[in-house]
Amino acid sequence: MAVQIREQMKLDLVKAMKARQSATVATLRSALAAIDNAEAVPIDEKTPMIPFVTQSPDVPRKVLSDADIRQILQKEVDERIAASAQYRDLGQPAEAERLQSAADLINAYLNDR
Prior knowledge:
The protein has 113 residues and is an all-alpha fold. The protein has a single domain (2-41, 48-112), classed as Hypothetical Protein Yqey, Chain: A, domain1 (Orthogonal Bundle). Helices cover 70% and strands 0% of the residues. The chain has helices at 2-18, 22-39, 66-89, 93-112. Helix 2 (22-39) crosses helix 3 (66-89) and helix 2 crosses helix 4 (93-112). The longest helix has 24 residues, at 66-89. It starts with a helix and ends with a helix.
């Protein structure tokens, strides 16, 4: 189901780009980037460093479970809600509302799908 969430987010990103909804585009890109970053394998002394000239530098990525993706998205929501509260406390309601809207957008993928 989380893979479906990710695919739906990608489809919605394209729609938002075509509609020039910059806030939605930024939020979806950020959430999808968080998922992509979580798939990256850690680099350590055991990870082979392949030169670009001879071979592709790509290494296999982690496979995230539905629970992993949901957890990542929930963390993104929580971070935005916390930042929204901080901005509200600092007397910046516009930025607080922007962050709350972003949290609501991501949360909709967790609740409705």
